[in-house]
Each structure stands twice: as structure tokens, then as C-alpha cells.
Amino acid sequence: MPISPSALAQLPVRHLTPNDLLVCADLSEDRGWLREEHKWGLLLTAGTGYGIDAPDGSGLAACCVITPYGPELSALGMMLVAERYARQGVGRRLVQHVLEETGDTPVTLYATPNGQPLYEQFDFNEIGRAEMVLGQFTFSEPAPAVAVRAATADDLPAILRLDHEVFGIDRTHIITRLPAFADHLRVAEENGRITGFAAIWPNMDTHVVGPLIAQDPDTAKALIASLATATDRPLRTDVDVRHTSLLEWLKGNGVSSIFTTSVMVRGLPDLPGDLLRRFAPLTVAAG
User: What percent of the chain has pLDDT over 70?
Assistant: First the structure.
């Protein structure tokens, strides 16, 4: 179903709302992704969705989501083009529109190997990589003896302070949604001070670990092990490849590598914050 260049240039881009959740999930399914309706619900309320309606009147031709973190940074995710409109410039048209709207705000994203060449055309540079891992956690390798407990409402101010310190940007509008979005939220403590936190949230038949913030790999391992006791579903997460100790421990516990993505940034030499304490994102769609 080819689109002429002149027709392509005229395709309007519109803002998506939570009412578009099902057509976004349909487009995910069209491209062989999971429907991920729970995640779409978060992204379309915490961020701004963009879509191009299909010229044939059936759903979306393309979509993506921008999650804003003020003037310092935005995250681009869920960039999808319907199979019948692939390789016709629709994705490029949508990315160009979104970047024009974000203006001078730096943008970050996680790119698949197929998507990376498109983003490079818009001056995105690779600054790191993340490894997606998935599997039934076996508890074969013991977790370090770090104190971990369920988070309470009283922990939220400390969690927000730690997140701001580690990310270098204010993510209050995302982190305050975690208690409702996640099935379980844990904190690690040392001498009465919160040194890390992590959540698991449902995604189809898996539980995704994210975000995962910790002062060191032992704390990250203890948080994951604690969360793993709360579910019988396979665990999935996206770990910064610099954290080799955590990745080796996960694989020793039955969690296997699926693929890697490129962490890319436009408008900054690197991401703000402390990368050594950032183990896994909430989702690669929101940075």
C-alpha cells in the first residue's frame, strides 16, 4: 500500500490520548510486539503520544510517545510503524515532527538495531547499551545479605530524593505513579537510610523489573531477589551492560539474554546523573 512522497508530507500527526490505548496495542501486535496494554496506559498518561492515522482508515499507521522530564530531557519510545506502511518514510516523518515539537530539549531513547540508523539521521549518538534478559528466576545463586523490605507511603519522599540524585532530573510525575502501576515496590536500607529501590510490574505473562536504582551491585541483586519471591511469572528487565556482575548473577539464576539495545542521546554528550547506580529503567520506552 505505497504512499506517494507528496501524500506522505501531508499526513497529519495528532496527539494520542488514553482513549487510543487499544489502537496503540493493536499496532504493537501488528509489528509482532506484545500488546502491553498496562504499559501503554502509563505512557499515555505520564507522557505525550503522537500518532499518524492510517490512510486506509484502519487504526494507526505509526505512533510513538514522548515522556518529558522538564527542559533537561525527554525520552522517546514506542516508535512503531504498521507493517503495511513500513519503509515508506512514515517513521521518519513522525520522528521529525516530534523532534520539532521538543525543540531544544535533549532527547534520549533505546534503539533496536533496525531503528538505530533512522535515529542517527537525526543526530542521535550511542552512549551505552542495555541487555534485555528474561527467564524464570531459580534462586540458584544466593542474594547478598542486604536489608530489603516492602516500601510504604512514608518512603516516597526518600525514594524521590534518591531518584533525583541518581537520574539528575526530576521524575516525580513518573515515580509517584509507581505504587499504583507496580505490583510490588521494594526498598533497600542501611542504617535507616534508603540505598536503593525497585519495582516489578505486570506485562502480559511476565513481570518486568524496573526501575532498579541501587548503591552497588549487591544491593541491586538483593532487591531483585526480594521481588522474585513475590511472583511466579518469568522476570524481564533491561540491564545496563556495564553492570556485568549483575548480569552474570541473573544468568546464574536462570534468566537468559534476549537481545541488546543502544542507549542514544540527542543534544547532550551523555545522560545526567550517576550511571553507576542506574541498573535498569522503569521501561525502555520512558528512559
Answer: 98
pLDDT single digits (tens) 5-63: 667 667 899 999 999 999 999 999 998 888 999 999 999 999 999 999 999 999 999 99
pLDDT for 184-235, tens place per residue? 999 999 999 999 999 999 999 999 999 999 999 999 999 999 999 999 999 9
Q: Which residues contact 120 (CB under 8 A, 6 or more apart)?
A: none
- Most distant pair of Cα atoms in the chain: their distance: 64
Task: Report, in angstroms and rounded to the nearest whole number, the Rg of the chain calculated over CA atoms.
Answer: 19
Asked if the peptide bond before residue 211 counts as cis, ω within 30 degrees of 0, the response is yes
Answer whether 200's CB lies under 8 Å from 184's CB.
Answer: yes
For residues 108 and 283, give the distance between their C-alpha atoms in angstroms, rounded to a whole number: 13
271-274 CB contacts, 8 Å cutoff, 24+ apart? 271/73, 271/108, 271/127, 271/128, 271/168, 272/72, 272/73, 272/167, 272/168, 272/169, 273/165, 273/166, 273/167, 273/168, 273/169, 274/165, 274/166, 274/168
